[in-house]
Design goal:
about 260 residues, about 15% strand, alpha/beta, two-stranded antiparallel sheet, globular
């Protein structure tokens, strides 16, 4: 009789434990987020957001437009597409393109004064929404600082928050190359910038947003990467992005949802 009672007790205990385990597993499975949801949550709680500039913050590729302005458009556009698709190192592509353009100081000044800044729809509102939440915003670009600083000023981003390449000129204003010590002048450079930002400012949830291979490869050290295809869709980048958007309104809406 005692043996039967003992067996019944053990069976009941075992059943209760199994039920509790299944219940716990069920709750866990419900709370587990998908990779996209994880990036969305990271973005909503980010303390720092870094944006690529060309074809992300602005609708154009700055170097392509400068090349066009200097009469070298077709040659350079082809190299830009190859570089952004990841078929050559960024530094190789940058050197090849600049060797073709060879812009002078006077050409740069004329270009800046005549070519309009074509901001991507929604970027102004997104940057303001992030800044209103106390999020630090940076522009991290493989483009040229002389062309990007005016974009930063237009978006009320301090120029000290711009990381980009610097052109060099001879005393007579002719093209002399670019500063190869700038991390953004080479593949992996954006990741190095992000690594330094995290070390210097102790950012815990840093998100990189961009359209190109150099943006995707910056995660890690970025804690999350959001692919942007509102101006141009690069299939390799789309495949690598856990969250891929084609309209900045989607990012703005995600912040609004969390605020509610």
């Amino acid at each position: 009789m005692l043996s039967a009672i003992s067996q019944l007790f053990n069976f009941s205990l075992k059943s209760n434990l199994q039920y509790a385990t299944l219940k716990t597993l069920s709750l866990v499975s419900i709370s587990v987020m998908s990779p996209q949801q994880s990036v969305q949550e990271l973005f909503r709680t980010a303390d720092c957001v870094c944006f690529d500039v060309d074809s992300t913050v602005i609708q154009d590729e700055g170097i392509d437009e400068l090349a066009k302005f200097c009469g070298k458009g077709d040659e350079v556009k082809r190299l830009t597409a190859e570089a952004m698709g990841g078929s050559m190192t960024f530094q190789e592509a940058l050197k090849k393109r600049l060797d073709i353009i060879r812009p002078s100081v006077s050409q740069i000044r004329q270009f800046i004064s005549t070519f309009p800044i074509n901001l991507t729809p929604g970027i102004s509102q997104l940057v303001k929404a992030l800044q209103d939440r106390g999020v630090k915003v940076y522009l991290v670009s493989g483009g040229f600082r002389c062309l990007i600083d005016p974009v930063a000023e237009l978006l009320n981003i301090p120029v000290t928050n711009v990381y980009a390449n610097r052109l060099k000129f001879f005393f007579d204003g002719e093209y002399a190359g670019f500063d190869e010590n700038e991390p953004t002048s080479r593949s992996g450079g954006k990741g190095l910038v992000i690594k330094r930002l995290k070390e210097h400012h102790n950012y815990q949830r840093l998100v990189m947003i961009g359209d190109g291979a150099t943006d995707a490869e910056a995660c890690p050290p970025a804690d999350g990467f959001i692919g942007f295809g509102g101006n141009v869709v690069r299939e390799e980048v789309k495949k690598r992005a856990l969250w891929y958007v084609t309209d900045f309104q989607e990012l703005i809406s995600s912040l609004t949802i969390q605020a509610k």
